[in-house]
């Protein structure tokens, strides 16, 4: 790289001969000026042309702009004796911005929950996600395409698809994250790391598109399916060769699951299933549907394979079509009775058995996404100069930032406490003691998330309204944080569940 002095750069300060300095690097924008998305004229301004435009640049662009190959090659040299200050983070590295990482990941802080193994696991997961999954997430979120088979294969090689379903017998004999964690050591904190890390991409549609259908649709197979069904379907899904979706909600029934109208009528050794499911995550590309049906004897869950009589069509939602949200139509689909999951008429307990984990998972990714927004706002408020001073010099902005930090820390700490309970409880204990608390936690986290989305939008102003550029993550979060309040159960219903569960446990002699 050539080395220049400020005086040398300053001579190139006009149309056709235009250099600028950003963070000690010298860029020749002579030809690029005419192509500059922000227009050429802004580049000829007296405080920009031939000058150190670092502060002006970072008031208008994300650092990643300079890293894109087409712009990186505009650099012709550096300022003699100076070094760049703003470095691109290395894949897998932790942010040094206060509160940008959970406390357990922040230098000099402690946590009772995480071991060295969790730390190694987190580092490896973040590095892999940033190198392999993040580029895919950005592409799919923007283009609305489903996750590619190539990335699914990489996820399955590391057994990430299996690990996202939590600790359990499905991990037995598997080589997790290249042997970094033994199946018997894998616990809910490892899983929590996976869910929070994937949410860091700021691509809410992709979080669901990264096979969340399996996280919620597969457990009923291994908990309630016949051995034959398990030995066929579980390996297919965990290896990423087939996709599965949970098909419960309908236009007729959301949180009120018992209101579903899809019917399954016995005909010899078959069920004949007819009905329409709505909002089915991964439904557009699923091969299997874990489906709640109404039968003569009551609610029954049946595994339906895509085939004759099954059709899906995408539903346009506020988030990206990469999630594969679908209407699923079953038109007199003949399904072998051996595909019944659990007892006929006992479908509600099959469905409920899944809910705690699903709600906790949505909460975990919601917390991961919220933390990224806190980091975005802290960085932006620090670098944005307004009325000649950084945004942080405004008390109203500092107040918003303080509330954001308070919320994310409260959410994270409660989530970790609940996760610790899950690690120490049997499945039945969890259902008994945690269903209500997870409902309240999810309600709290999704409400905090939306308050933070509102505050972040105010901090970023107009930039939070555009899909690209400076505020793109805030825009995505503001548009999609409401999903966390609805998916896996509407927050008001869940909050109420929490209260009802608590009321059931009131001691008979409780009096003031
Ligand atoms: C290496 C130098 C530069 C490159 C590669 C560059 C590139 C870009 C790109 C890609 C955008 C589109 C928005 C985005 O993706 O963030 C943009 C927007 C913009 N740029 Fe630059 N730019 C450079 C320097 C500057 C400088 C020195 C100024 C100083 C005034 C400037 C002013 C703007 C403005 C006003 C916008 C529009 C921002 C908005 O709509 O919010 N650019 N630039």
TrEMBL record:
<protein>
    <submittedName>
        <fullName>Acyl-CoA dehydrogenase/oxidase</fullName>
    </submittedName>
</protein>
<dbReference type="InterPro" id="IPR006091">
    <property type="entry name" value="Acyl-CoA_Oxase/DH_mid-dom"/>
</dbReference>
<comment type="similarity">
    <text>Belongs to the acyl-CoA dehydrogenase family.</text>
</comment>
<keyword id="KW-0274">FAD</keyword>
<dbReference type="GO" id="GO:0005737">
    <property type="term" value="C:cytoplasm"/>
</dbReference>
<dbReference type="Pfam" id="PF00441">
    <property type="entry name" value="Acyl-CoA_dh_1"/>
</dbReference>
<dbReference type="InterPro" id="IPR036400">
    <property type="entry name" value="Cyt_B5-like_heme/steroid_sf"/>
</dbReference>
<feature type="domain" description="Cytochrome b5 heme-binding">
    <location>
        <begin position="1"/>
        <end position="80"/>
    </location>
</feature>
<dbReference type="InterPro" id="IPR001199">
    <property type="entry name" value="Cyt_B5-like_heme/steroid-bd"/>
</dbReference>
<dbReference type="InterPro" id="IPR036250">
    <property type="entry name" value="AcylCo_DH-like_C"/>
</dbReference>
<dbReference type="Pfam" id="PF02771">
    <property type="entry name" value="Acyl-CoA_dh_N"/>
</dbReference>
<dbReference type="Pfam" id="PF00173">
    <property type="entry name" value="Cyt-b5"/>
</dbReference>
<dbReference type="InterPro" id="IPR037069">
    <property type="entry name" value="AcylCoA_DH/ox_N_sf"/>
</dbReference>
<dbReference type="InterPro" id="IPR046373">
    <property type="entry name" value="Acyl-CoA_Oxase/DH_mid-dom_sf"/>
</dbReference>
<dbReference type="GO" id="GO:0033539">
    <property type="term" value="P:fatty acid beta-oxidation using acyl-CoA dehydrogenase"/>
</dbReference>
<dbReference type="InterPro" id="IPR009100">
    <property type="entry name" value="AcylCoA_DH/oxidase_NM_dom_sf"/>
</dbReference>
<dbReference type="InterPro" id="IPR009075">
    <property type="entry name" value="AcylCo_DH/oxidase_C"/>
</dbReference>
<keyword id="KW-0560">Oxidoreductase</keyword>
<keyword id="KW-0285">Flavoprotein</keyword>
<dbReference type="InterPro" id="IPR013786">
    <property type="entry name" value="AcylCoA_DH/ox_N"/>
</dbReference>
<dbReference type="GO" id="GO:0050660">
    <property type="term" value="F:flavin adenine dinucleotide binding"/>
</dbReference>
<dbReference type="Pfam" id="PF02770">
    <property type="entry name" value="Acyl-CoA_dh_M"/>
</dbReference>
<dbReference type="GO" id="GO:0003995">
    <property type="term" value="F:acyl-CoA dehydrogenase activity"/>
</dbReference>
<dbReference type="InterPro" id="IPR006089">
    <property type="entry name" value="Acyl-CoA_DH_CS"/>
</dbReference>
<dbReference type="InterPro" id="IPR050741">
    <property type="entry name" value="Acyl-CoA_dehydrogenase"/>
</dbReference>
């Amino acid at each position: 790289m050539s080395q220049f002095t400020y005086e040398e750069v300053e001579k190139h300060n006009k149309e056709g001969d235009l250099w600028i300095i950003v963070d000690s690097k010298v860029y020749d924008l002579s030809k690029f000026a005419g192509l500059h998305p922000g227009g050429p004229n802004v580049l000829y301004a007296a405080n920009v042309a031939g000058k150190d435009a670092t502060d002006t640049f970072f008031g208008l662009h994300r650092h990643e702009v300079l890293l894109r190959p087409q712009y990186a090659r505009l650099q012709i040299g550096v300022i003699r004796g100076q070094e760049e200050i703003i470095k691109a983070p290395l894949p897998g590295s932790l942010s040094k911005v206060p509160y940008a990482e959970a406390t357990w990941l922040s230098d000099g802080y402690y946590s009772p929950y995480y071991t060295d193994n969790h730390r190694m696991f987190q580092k490896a997961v973040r590095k892999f996600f940033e190198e392999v999954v993040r580029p895919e997430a950005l592409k799919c979120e923007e283009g609305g395409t489903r996750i590619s088979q190539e990335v699914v294969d990489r996820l399955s090689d590391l057994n990430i698809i299996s690990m996202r379903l939590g600790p359990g017998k499905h991990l037995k004999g598997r080589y997790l994250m290249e042997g970094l964690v033994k199946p018997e050591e894998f616990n809910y904190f490892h899983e929590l790391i996976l869910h929070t890390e994937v949410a860091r991409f700021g691509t809410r549609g992709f979080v669901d598109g990264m096979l969340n259908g399996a996280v919620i649709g597969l457990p009923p197979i291994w908990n309630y399916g016949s051995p034959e069904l398990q030995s066929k379907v579980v390996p297919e899904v965990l290896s990423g060769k087939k996709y599965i979706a949970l098909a419960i909600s309908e236009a007729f029934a959301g949180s009120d699951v018992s209101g579903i109208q899809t019917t399954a009528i016995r005909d010899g050794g078959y069920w004949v299933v007819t009905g329409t499911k709505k909002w089915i995550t991964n439904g557009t590309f699923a091969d299997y549907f874990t489906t709640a049906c109404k039968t003569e004897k009551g609610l029954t869950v049946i595994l339906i394979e895509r085939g004759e009589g099954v059709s899906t069509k995408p539903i346009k939602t506020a988030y990206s079509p990469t999630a594969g949200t679908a209407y699923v139509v079953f038109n007199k689909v003949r399904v072998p009775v051996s595909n019944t999951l659990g007892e006929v008429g006992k479908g509600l307990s099959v469905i409920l058995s899944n809910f705690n984990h699903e709600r906790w998972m949505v909460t975990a990714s919601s917390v991961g996404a919220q933390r990224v927004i806190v980091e975005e706002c802290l960085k932006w408020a620090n670098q944005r100069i307004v009325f000649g001073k950084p945004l942080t010099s405004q008390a109203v902005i500092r107040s918003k930032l303080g509330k954001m930090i308070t919320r994310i820390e409260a959410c994270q700490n409660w989530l970790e406490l609940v996760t610790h309970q899950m690690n120490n409880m049997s499945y039945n204990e969890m259902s008994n003691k945690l269903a209500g608390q997870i409902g309240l936690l999810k309600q709290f986290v999704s409400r905090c998330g939306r308050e933070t989305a509102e505050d972040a939008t105010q901090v970023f102003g107009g930039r939070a309204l555009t899909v690209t550029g400076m505020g793109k993550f805030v825009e995505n979060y503001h548009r999609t944080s409401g999903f966390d309040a609805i998916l896996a159960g509407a927050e008001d219903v869940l909050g109420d569940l929490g209260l009802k569960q608590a009321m059931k446990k009131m001691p008979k002699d409780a009096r003031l």
